[in-house]
Write a structure and sequence with these properties.
Layout lengths: L1 E2 L7 H13 L10 E2 L2 H11 L11 E5 L5 E5 H5 L1
Parallel strand pairs: 1-2
Antiparallel strand pairs: 1-3, 3-4
Length: 80
């Protein structure tokens, strides 16, 4: 799932993610989620904290594996 706080900054990334999701749609065990609502992003950050939002960022990419392990990547830090 990608949580994007400022949509204007990530136009190309959002387009690429949507294309990847469409190309992967035949895989039953793979799901994509995209959050662009700022209120929902803040709520998710409040609920999941640093597990999903490293370095205090609001824009993040979250991957949850089949075994429940969660990985989070701060999109602001990675784009700098």
């Amino acid at each position: 799932m990608a949580v994007i706080f400022d949509v204007e900054e990530y136009d190309t990334e959002l387009r690429n993610m949507k294309e990847a999701a469409r190309a992967s749609a035949i895989r039953e065990s793979l799901r994509f989620g995209l959050v662009t609502d700022k209120k929902l992003a803040k709520k998710l950050k409040h609920i999941h904290g640093p597990n999903w939002f490293p370095s205090g960022a609001f824009s993040t990419l979250i991957v949850k594996r089949y075994d429940g392990q969660v990985y989070a990547l701060d999109l602001i830090e990675q784009s700098a």
